Amino acid sequence: MDRSWLRSGAVGLLASVLLPPLGLLLIWTRPGIRLAVRVLASVALAVLGVAYLYLFFGLRMEVDGSGVRPILSFHQPERHYAAIEEDRAAPRIVPAAAPLSPAADRELAAPAAEAAWPAFRGRGQLGVYESPIQTAWPAKGLPRLWKQPVGGGYSSFAVAGGKAFTIEQRRSQEVVAAYDLKTGRELWKNAWDGLFQESMGGDGPRTTPTWDQGRLYALGALGEFRCLDAETGKLLWTTNILEENGAENLTWAMSASPLIVQDKVIVLPGGQGRSVVAYDKKTGKTVWAVLTDKQAYTTPIEVTLAGQRQILVVSATRAMGLTPDKGELLWSYPWRTEYDVNSAQPIVTGPDRFFISAGYGHGAALVRIVRKGAGFSAETVWQNTRMKNKFASSVLYQGHIYGLDEAILASINAETGALNWKGGRYGYGQLVLAGGYLIVLSEAGELVLVKATPERHTELARFPAIEGKTWNHPAVAGGLLLVRNTEEMACFRIAP
Predict the structure, then answer these.
(1) What is the 8-class DSSP label of residue 296?
(2) What is residue 106's predicted lDDT score, i.e. its pLDDT?
(3) Pairing verdict, β 430-434 and 128-129
(4) What sign for the dihedral angle of Cα 451, 453, 456, 457?
(5) Could you say which of 21, 99, 147, 233 would form a disulfide bridge with 188 (CB–CB 3.0 to 4.6 Å)?
């Protein structure tokens, strides 16, 4: 009996299982196989091929900032963490960089108390860099000082005293790390056990460290809150703001960065009667705790509105003003979005006005704070859907607001809310204002230079900076531009 057909069939089956693309070729080129069998076998081999890519090559399907469009990527955590450990252990050999401008060098050498970028989105959480920048970018992109792997998460950088500080996920630990700004060399790290995992938003910490008077305040995704010596990384005090205040974590974890107000540091755990908490910044002892709001993902800011110094907080359902000394409620303004997601930073646009925006189709509003006798009230000046900041915050320049309306860059008149223009698809990235220009870090990791003008959308330059989905906010200090995502971090010279 001739069993050659059996042997050849068995070989074909084995080849198909081991190498699905070869199996597909055999299925569709071998004669005598019915169409229905070809189709079913092709589906099975395609599923098998995807399984192999997932198991052996780290294929993952993420979503972009819309939560709808899939992004295919290859991520192998073990290899990634090993690359970080190898990079940090290796001697750092950095080619000599061209000197910065005298102004940028003075900025880097200035006393740390004058740090240009001490917290999330810089001073006042405004996303503004005050010094001049280079606007004629080379075709290949800005000069790069260094690029290296980084742990996971969506933290940005605080920069002070020639160091860049960020929070990363490394294996099952959250890590606060300090890097030499000019070389990228890791100077110290402070780590603790903690791993927040979420399939849609991604794993790891979300907040950015806050620097103040030689101390660093870092909040992890699971509520671990630490005060560290910024020079050495030594632990000065610690607490867990969720456990201490009886609060539950948010769907996408603790994301509001700490705010320093005089002798206090403000955080947003969201607990019953302890939604907003002020700690003594030197001792970690509770100074006051107020409200019962479910919190959101927006960092509190210190502002002056209607002549009153106050803390502007955006919770899951409203914006509100609190007194810095006791946390007393001055006013509130309803602001509730789908899924209780408020992520973008509000912007003060005048002595008594602030701009607020949210995604999920919600839109934006200009709110006026009015003093009425001994109290205050909040009134709507305008509200529309011309600017929908999902988790990228806008910036203000010369009476106009620039930001990502979902995934498209747009400009609106701050006083009227009228649309100036809309153009430039950068995905769900982030942006910074510098010297009348917008530095956009796209969701794909590109750096883009756009002129900040209400006339039209004018893109001047673009180049790939880092690879992978990029939701982290850039930072600029001392003529250097820092970018990162969940895989890579890099530093570019942007001084003129």
Answers:
(1) -
(2) 66
(3) parallel
(4) positive
(5) 233
* 446 contacts 425 by C-beta, under 8 angstroms: no
Strands 173-180 and 163-170: antiparallel
Query: Residue 85 and residue 446: Cα distance in Å, rounded?
Result: 26
Q: Look at the chain and count its residues.
A: 496
Q: Which two tokens stand for residue 439?
A: 């530095």
| pLDDT of amino acid 5 | 40
Model confidence at 75: pLDDT above 90: no
Q: List the 158-160 sheet strands across, edge first.
A: 158-160, 163-170, 173-180, 186-193
Average pLDDT over residues 258-271: 97
Place of tokens 């979902």: 406
Of the chain, the percentage scoring pLDDT greater than 90 comes to 76
68-72, 284-288, 389-393: least confidently modelled range? 68-72
What is the dihedral angle through the alpha carbons of 265, 266, 269, 271, rounded to the nearest 10 degrees? 110
Here the tokens at position 197 are: 């995992």
Torsion angle defined by CA atoms of residues 50, 54, 59 and 60, in that order, rounded to the nearest 10 degrees: 100
Do the beta carbons of residue 158 and residue 165 sit within 8 Å?
yes
Taking the CB of residue 398, how many other CB atoms lie within 10 A of it? 9
Q: Is the pLDDT of residue 237 over 50?
A: yes
Specify the amino acid at residue 256. A
Instruction: State phi, psi for 82 to the nearest 5 degrees.
Output: -65, -35
What is the reported pLDDT for 35? 80
Structure tokens at 22: 């070869």
pLDDT digits (tens, 9 = 90+) for 396-424: 999 999 999 999 999 999 999 999 999 99
**pLDDT(13) > 90:** no
The residues facing 224 across adjacent strands are 240
What whole-number distance in Å separates Cα of residue 125 and Cα of residue 279? Answer: 20
Name the one residue in this structure whose structure tokens are 């698809």. 425
Q: How confident is the model at residue 7 (pLDDT cuts 50, 70, 90)?
A: very low
Q: Name which of 320, 274, 348, 302 is nearest 311 in CA terms.
A: 302
Place of tokens 């290949």: 140
Q: Please give the C-alpha separations between residue 269 and each of 56, 194, 312, 333, 415, in angstroms, as whole numbers.
A: 40, 17, 15, 20, 34
- The Cα–Cα gap between 362 and 453 comes to 25
What's the pLDDT at 97?
Answer: 54
Q: Which two tokens stand for residue 79?
A: 């290899």
Where would I find the beta strands (DSSP E) of 183-290?
186-193, 210-212, 215-219, 224-229, 235-240, 259-261, 264-267, 276-280, 286-290
